[in-house]
Amino acid sequence: MSDTLSMAWAEAWIRDTQVVLAEHRMELIDLDRAIGDGDHGENMDRGFKAVVAKLDEGGIADVQGVLKLVASTLMSKVGGAAGPLYGTAFLRAAKSSDGDLDSQGVVAMIEGALDGIVSRGKATTGEKTMVDAWTPALEAAKAAAESGASPAATLRAAADAAAKGAEATIPLQATKGRASYLGERSIGHQDPGATSTAYILGAAADAAEAE
Amino acid sequence: MNVALVIVSHSVQLAEGVVELAAQMAKDVTIRAAGGTDDGRIGTSFDKVNDAVTELRAAGHDVAILTDLGSATMTVESVLDLLDDDELAHVKFVDGPLVEGAVAAAVTAQVGGDLDAVVVAGRARELFS
User: Which of B8, B7, B2 has the alpha carbon at shortest distance from B27?
Assistant: First the structure.
């Protein structure tokens, strides 16, 4: 494990994410069918496959370059709400990621992603959205980095918190996005966007631990 | 420099239908459909919206963009985010109901309304007052 996360990590993260999202494609489709339009699993799978195809072309120089590539590809290839939301998240994460990332760099990257999602989706916590995974992820990453955790351990703390946050969306009633039209019937289902967030951050931690 | 419209819908057919309807009272207004994903599925496409805006601007139009649902609006906002400030004076999102708003915006453009007038008309606020 290294003190900073380089472009090799960023690339491994995104490739791992593609594999994980392909594995969980049906699960995300089912979650989204329950409270949305059912396209989330398909969209994320297609989006990250397109990202990996672009990565295969090479020519990326640093972490920021990888994150920018993810942003522009998701923006243009993902037709659902996830395209602009994750696209903006990765774009802001890229802007916050200059050079290799130490633990504070990891925090800044996650903070950038959350800021992007909040500004694009205008959601806050408790509305049963991906914000409910990114917000605890940022808090956990901050706490870990402040206590001297490595970048990998900081990402693991963020990923675990995102997974818990995603699970905690189950009893919530959706008040944002199309799920909000279901009112009380949105209760009892885990939010698909919060779930894919947990997978993405989980892949980031896995890739960092493998460095 | 007349105002052109872009109709953004999750559905290819809905976008084209709204264009057809709005054009009925606005035969001289350029109205572009940007419906569906790049490969024609349900969804919206950053590239379709961006291409429509770029082409209409290149042709000298100011551009008003209308959407059907929240994630279409997010796609449009993503496109607007990448424009520079000068361009933002010529390309605006219309926060209104798609069908009524498109008809009102198209008619306003037809009678020579500028971009601000088209945007106000397209919000169709009188529907909710």
Answer: B2
